[in-house]
Specification:
This protein has 114 residues and is an alpha+beta fold. 27% of the residues lie in helices and 25% in strands. The longest helix has 12 residues, at 98-109.
Amino acid sequence: MNPGRGLDALVAEKVMQVPYDLHSFKKWGAKAFLISDKNDGYYMFGPPSPYSTDMGAAWEVAEKFDRVCVEKDTASGKWKAGGWIFDKFVSSHLVDTAPHAICLAALKAVGYQP
């Protein structure tokens, strides 16, 4: 799965456990998301955090790991992430960026295989 809003929305739901209803529609030529917490009746309009493209947001995902390692393969220049999360070891395959690798490893840990 490629980095971007689709992957970010999956990470928000499956890993970060953000309760929301995802409705995509056109507004100013871009997709937007309606996020609701049904317990509190809280609604927020906007895109999910850019977990798969922004390292700062990806560190929020990495903090879900008990231990995490993010490394760059010197031969290919690609990144992979691995670590222990939810009591199991997982790792991503090689991808172009560290945030993408972190997101893929975290999704794998919760049993989601994009």
